[in-house]
Design a protein that fits this description.
Pfam families: TPR_19. InterPro entries: TPR-like_helical_dom_sf, TPR_rpt. This protein has three domains: 70 residues, Alpha Horseshoe (Serine Threonine Protein Phosphatase 5, Tetratricopeptide repeat); 42 residues, no CATH class; 43 residues, no CATH class. 65% of the residues lie in helices and 8% in strands. It contains nine helices and two strands, in the order H-H-H-H-H-H-H-H-H-E-E. A two-stranded antiparallel sheet has the order 1-2. The relative contact order is 0.07.
Length: 171
């Protein structure tokens, strides 16, 4: 199948929900792609397939491949930011959104996403190693025992220096 025919067939497969097959054809077409515009389109299509297949790491990698070819590709920046949010990599997502705002400072969509990410980062759980260093030995005695259940702990600050509040939920 010739390059253009393979891409058209991949589009049909994608629209029909056959994302893995579409991905294979996009990959074959990418191997034969000639110019940057063609490679950008094919990496973008592969990113869309990976998203549909819930392979968020590979979707982000495909967006990165697009950005290596065009550092200001707004679609790839937005898609990678959304994918990074799904992966809970809020700091990296914020980096991409900041780049989007640099490209288009008047975009309300980008500014809203920026505000949501800043809020999320302020609420993000503290990694366990950092969490333990926040407590005195006496405080640690009051913590629930560790088990194999994954917990998310959020430290809520109070106006009173000695007050600490923990919210723990099982995931």
């Amino acid at each position: 199948m010739a390059g253009a025919e393979a891409v058209e067939r991949a589009h049909e497969l994608y629209r029909g929900g056959r994302h893995r097959e579409a991905l294979e054809l996009y990959s074959a077409a990418l191997a034969a792609a000639r110019g940057p515009a063609q490679r950008i389109a094919l990496h973008s299509n592969r990113a869309a397939c990976y998203l549909k297949l819930h392979d968020f790491h590979k979707a982000a990698e495909e967006c990165t491949s697009v950005l290596e070819l065009d550092t200001e590709h707004a679609g790839a920046l937005m898609l990678r930011a959304q994918t990074l949010v799904t992966l809970k990599d809020y700091q990296s997502a914020l980096f991409d959104v900041n780049r989007l705002i640099e490209i288009n400072p008047s975009s309300e969509v980008y500014r809203n996403l920026h505000a949501r990410l800043k809020t999320q980062l302020s609420l993000a759980p503290i990694p366990e190693s950092e969490e333990e260093s926040l407590y005195t030995e006496e405080d640690k005695e009051d913590l629930p025992p560790k088990d194999n259940t994954k917990n998310e702990t959020v430290v809520v600050k109070s106006d009173q220096p000695s007050a600490k509040s923990l919210i723990t939920r099982n995931l």
